[in-house]
Design goal:
2 copies of one chain form a homodimer. Chain A has 449 residues and is of the alpha/beta class. Chain A is built from 11 helices and 25 strands. In chain A, the strands form 8 sheets. In chain A, strands 5-2-1-9-21-20 form a 6-stranded mixed sheet, with helices on one face.
């Protein structure tokens, strides 16, 4: 026991005791937004509790690299405790928030309650399958480490099964990969699968040629990266073509069954036989958004995001803030700010500072997003970048992308390791983290065979 | 399709076709022994098929580092296809061998059959809980990547739960770790948990002091590392003591229940309340050993290992070889050769060469193990080494251990990454791969929160 800490310690199954001093700030979620809020409170006279049901901060923009064997989970994760070790007014607790009691000002955990003076909700978004939740099993999305290792296993297993396939039709279905949704995640994922097939695995098989793999990227809008400017969509499309990715725009998914994906284009309905289907099409606010709506009457947008006031607070609840992907922050075009890391980090930092200012009795202002540009990467040395006045594509954009992503990775070891993995991958086109993990079928208890 | 390969391609659910030339060598298992056998056949006029139910070779001696957050799974794994890419007479198939038909000379897969002219069994060993298979759930062993990430999650979750524990008794049970078995794996694991608690996590918690963790290493024999010379056991014991590991020798486990471990020592029976119990006490031959015994009358030793002739073949079946941990190779002391990587590699290489020699009509000799020494590591800069004439301990042994282990890691990227992780860990005592993975309890479908 550390001295003096006992009075702040709390029950796992009873009420979690109040902080020992100052207003109690509870932050739910240790992603970009929650972590930025916690850090912005470093020198404030508050007692911060950061709740997350994971023990690590995840650098989601590189998750597609884990899903395609380029990086290991730990390379893009940093233990929350280690990140916040030196910030003595923060305690980190591994806990799942299941409900909120805004009258009593308590968050309700699976195994206890915790009072707050200020609540910052930053629990992000999950996958959204619109009217087809049954598609999830067949077409997993990419939000967590477990999603990424699952997708990695599916992609690699498809090639393994193709090597052993009995006939050509089956083999072609095994070598067909459909990625649904051509936003940044879908584009990056399709590009990385293209690279894997064309370069990394090229000489690894005896019966199949991985370059024969068909990768189809489906998009409902009329171009890839629809939220970017159209020149960049064009550049992305040609980079994808160089990696052998077929792009099908103006295309909607009608059905996904065990063997095929049914598509509707302006030209009619078509089918693709594909063993592997990946979902990058829709997100919806995490469950706590709906909880908040029920408990406070908060308004949600069509994606389950919580509509916030211009200081990121919940209208009518100046003690509750919603930041990051879970927040719908109004914009002129009604789309709301995009669900990207820079918005989340800026909102988190803003709310941290606002809490500090309020405690100090200083005047506060509304949140303003400073758009520093958009980036997406396609394959190993191609990317598109939109920095407002500057827009560029290809190798220069890729170097910029690499630099920015590595700069923002939390933790020194990660940065060096990721850089080495990248340098090695760039030189050899190798992807070292190509593991199919999880209990294989037919594995007995106890003994390996 | 690669040209000319089709005739060697095989059904997933029908008979797998014979090789296109020369004797068909089927190797089951891509560990140290199987991989060494495949490589030794590189220039032989044989058609080698390497079957493994994993798609990677695992460097098991470093698995305890994954279990304690020091390394990532991919750091100690190499995709089998990548390792054997340039060896054109080998094909790698992801498959599970369920049975053997020695009359027809076929291995039976979950989904097909495959004929062999020569069979090399190298499927290793699994955990063995003696008369208590029910202990496995409570006290997992360390043989696979999944085992390692499971153990990592248990250790880290114990500290997380301790931070939130309601009372001191519960907290102390959560901070108690029992490691059963003080062979190299148990010693390394206990030492690494000691380091994690004493150094890595030291400042990470607010309510608990991880240095208060109790780590107990249980051994039935009268000293740790009973297969090593006694001076080295002494050195290991004092290194463990410096890391705060309590060693209890001459101690047997009587019972393991949800809360406690019951121990019997010459002094009587005692109990330890411990949330985390790890098993490093017993192994037994993988299921294929028993299959072979049933199908051929092969003799097994008390640990389910297959007794082999002095050329590693199965007596009465000169076309079947058993190598690595699964083989019982008789020694003067009746213990058999130890289940360590050097024995496995030497046997694999020996059998590969023997097959080549037989094909060439050359005379063959029996296998002789060249003991180049034993090593075990205790914590971050201490190890014990027994190189026959030379025996040393402490820092020098640790450097030697590090050098040998990294030298034997397959794949350039792994080596560099592991070296950097180690250098970083050595300087900072950090362990970057401290992730609790797997679906957390209470996680909803679709949306994250």
């Amino acid at each position: 026991m550390r001295e003096g800490a006992e009075d702040r310690v709390t029950g796992t199954s009873s009420e979690i005791s109040p902080a020992s001093y100052g207003p109690r700030v509870v932050i739910a979620g240790g992603g970009f937004a929650g972590l930025a809020a916690a850090r912005a409170l470093a020198r404030a006279a508050v007692d911060v509790t950061l709740l997350d049901r994971r023990n690590y901060h995840l650098f989601q923009p590189l998750l597609y690299q884990v899903a395609t064997g380029g990086l290991s989970p730990a390379d893009i994760s940093a233990p929350l405790r280690a990140v916040l070790r030196r910030q003595h007014n923060v305690r980190v607790l591994l806990a799942t928030v299941v409900d909120i009691d805004p009258q009593k000002r308590q968050v309700i955990l699976e195994d206890g309650r915790m009072p707050y003076d200020v609540l910052v909700l930053a629990t992000g978004v999950g996958h959204h399958y619109f009217a087809h939740p049954e598609w999830e099993r067949r077409a997993p999305g990419l939000k967590t480490i477990e999603d990424a290792t699952e997708i990695r296993g599916r992609i690699l297993r498809a090639f393994e099964n193709a090597e052993r396939a009995a006939d050509g039709t089956e083999r072609q279905a095994l070598l067909t990969f459909v990625v649904i949704g051509a936003g940044p995640t879908g584009v990056e994922l399709a590009g990385a699968v293209g690279e894997l097939a064309r370069f990394t695995l090229r000489r690894d098989f005896r019966a199949v040629d991985p370059r024969a793999a068909r990768i189809v990227l489906i998009e409902g809008a009329d171009r890839v990266l629809p939220s970017y400017r159209s020149e960049l969509s064009e550049a992305a499309r040609s980079s994808l073509a160089r990696l052998g990715v077929e792009v099908s725009t103006d295309t909607r998914v009608e059905a996904i069954d065990e063997r095929r994906v049914t598509l509707r284009t302006p030209a009619g309905v078509s089918e693709i036989e594909a063993a592997t289907v990946l979902w990058a099409a829709g997100v919806k606010g995490s469950r706590l958004g709906a909880v908040l709506a029920r408990r406070t009457g908060a308004e949600l947008d069509g994606h389950g995001r919580v509509k916030v006031a211009n200081d990121c607070s919940l209208p009518g609840h100046e003690e509750i803030f919603v930041v990051g992907d879970l927040a719908y922050f109004a914009t002129a075009d009604d789309e709301g700010l995009p669900g990207i890391a820079p918005v989340a980090m800026q909102q988190g930092r803003f709310v941290g500072k606002l809490i500090r200012d309020r405690l100090a009795g200083r005047r506060t202002r509304g949140f303003r997003y400073r758009n520093r540009g958009s980036l997406a990467v396609i394959g190993r040395a191609a990317a598109v970048a939109d920095l407002g006045a500057l827009r560029f594509t290809g190798y220069a954009a890729w170097i910029l992308w690499l630099f920015i992503h590595i700069m923002y990775l939390v933790g020194f070891a990660n940065r060096v390791l990721v850089l080495i993995q990248w340098a090695h991958g760039y030189l050899t086109r190798g992807r070292g983290a190509r593991l199919i993990t999880g209990r294989p079928a037919g594995m007995g208890e106890g003994a390996d065979d």
